[in-house]
């Protein structure tokens, strides 16, 4: 089983940790070794959050190396660009088309880079960059709070694992009242990837 | 069964399976989840203690009573708990005592980067360092058995990445091992440390250390992993994992019991890989050259800190860079250029009850602040800017007030230090009025003795307790002021005002954190007064209470872009095209309303201004 490294980046409250937990669960369900590291900073709202997830036969380091991530899932554009150096040259980046202004920008000290600069940073690493309207897709399927699940569904389509395994992992992870909308959002993402003809 | 667990969860599960009966802690990153996980199990006593010293004393007391006890804390917590820790080293215990110290290389959420392995040397206790969650799970059981066998506390030392990193733990789902309390006997020569008894106990400790050194030589988790004999690597903890990535073919000596140091094992490894004749041993360890110095003392050629830095957290890239420096890997490929991106530093949340205090302190006259404050006619306190406040801060979310735009903190060192530091600043004779600011949990942790000191020694500082009803920064744990235990039982809630009056603080006030006029006038009164004062600023943590509300609205016609609201540092506010704008999903609305209250133009309000109010 080849090594597969993931980076999931976003802002506090976007559901980065839940998304990366699912990748951990899937690895165990499919008999892989897995390590995961979350970098959360402090407990306040609005800080940057990143999860490193590594699959393989035997995984030592819980942290992904620069240039090592086959997959970069960005729930926010600026944070996606921040982790671009971790993307493998042939890697795949899935970016949610959402901007959340950091305090350095909102207080007037800096400006939020334009899309060309942020997505361009990723495109400089790989041709395989997909920008997704995650919030819109989540809203359209009646699961406005589950953008992270839309993105996970999109990513999952590339990973050659049965859809049922994912839906089951979601069922194990999320509280009952969120289960139905979360699975719906996941499937919306999965279908979006197919629609875009994006899957390999 | 296999589960993906953090190191902290694995330690808790291991302790539960090992029959831990009493577990204590004070919250601190990266250790907090150990006790939180233990509190999810039944059949054992758990408590958030007032501070780490108390946590250590309670756990040691339980162990005196014959129980298997565990106390967990972040590394600087062991500084607070060092006194009872050293005491327990001398007495030993009938039960067992495992002390978990979670170090924070990289300073993710701490005030320093100290390497607590040195505590094991000073205390002469055995130390175990897990390198993943599986080892963490298994080593807890070893730690309890070793504590019992050698009658000593055992230090289990983790680091941020072993504490918070998740890896697979394979374990037998099983019932807890029921452990009976060891029988209680009175042994004052062992448990009452008058000098005559302590001298004898010191001899016992030295004999114990010799036995432990022998034990360490054959400890099963200290193991050689033969490989290419040209490169011999000694590593422990998370450093082992990174070294394994960078040197997949090398020979390894993986050390897990790192104190007492297994000298003969290291000598044997050095002979195996021919360290004397060929290349020196390589030591990959975060922070201090702990293993490196011990290997060098054996006369074995060794390379460590000259390649792998003594500062910061390691990762595979750091270890790889060290290997390149030593010529063990080819030169580095060109680094990938990345454009400069705006940082996303943490900041006080929308609706934070700390915000107004720092906003007003700065406005009252903070001696570092540049003279670019509000024009005097806009500030009710214009003539008070000469006061020149010095703000002694403390540990909590509110330390973020040191950053722009609040810029309202001068000193901050360790838990509870604000009051003592402020008193000292004042007694040094500086011309400025000194204010101490600390949170409720920090005040209870170690601020109270200093407050007593201020009164006793005729001080004059103002102390502000930011009471948000929670230990917020570490994830909203309870404390003696919250009235709820870790298991959710109702208990007495400490009354800070009553306490302050009892210790003799002459002026005590309680103010709502969002009542800006009262807060401002009370602050002004306190800093103008020449007697000690205590100001309790009450307001709930909005994240803890999950507060939401209808966002406020800026009237662009009225807003002249003066930036008064922006200086609150609220992430829900942005300045755009010369006008303020409220980021509506973040704003919690009128229950905070600080921006509305500080706006000199009355341009911000809860009412929609197009007539649909």
Descriptive overview:
The complex is a heterodimer of chains A (200) and B (613). Chain A has 200 residues and is α/β, with parallel strands linked by helices. Chain A has one domain (4-195): 3-Layer(aba) Sandwich (Pyruvate-ferredoxin Oxidoreductase, domain 3). Chain A has eight helices and six strands; from the N terminus they run E-H-E-E-E-H-E-H-H-E-H-H-H-H. Chain A has helices spanning 16-29, 77-82, 103-106, 115-123, 134-140, 147-156, 163-173, 176-195, and strands at residues 4-11, 33-39, 48-56, 69-74, 87-96, 129-132. Chain A has a six-stranded mixed β-sheet, sandwiched between helices. In chain A, strand 2 (33-39) and strand 3 form a beta hairpin. With 613 residues, chain B is of the alpha/beta class. Chain B contains 20 helices and 23 strands. The model of chain B is unreliable at 367-386 (pLDDT under 50). Chains A and B meet through helix 1, strand 2, helix 2 and helix 3 of A and strand 1, strand 8, helix 11, helix 14 and strand 21 of B.
Summary keywords:
heterodimer, A: 200 residues, alpha/beta, Pyruvate-ferredoxin Oxidoreductase, domain 3, 40% helix, 22% strand, globular, B: alpha/beta, Rossmann fold, 4 domains, 7-stranded mixed sheet, 34% helix
Identify the quaternary structure here.
heterodimer
What count of helical segments of chain A does DSSP give? 8
Strand line-up across the major sheet of chain A? 2-3-1-4-5-6
Main sheet of chain B: which strands, in order across? Answer: 3-2-4-5-7-6-12
Mean of residue pLDDT of chain B? Answer: 93
What is the CA-CA span between the terminal residues of chain A? 18 Å
* Uncertain runs of chain B: 367-386
CATH topology of chain A: Pyruvate-ferredoxin Oxidoreductase, domain 3
Largest interface: A-B, 53 and 56 residues
- What is the CATH superfamily of the largest domain in chain B? Thiamin diphosphate (ThDP)-binding fold, Pyr/PP domains
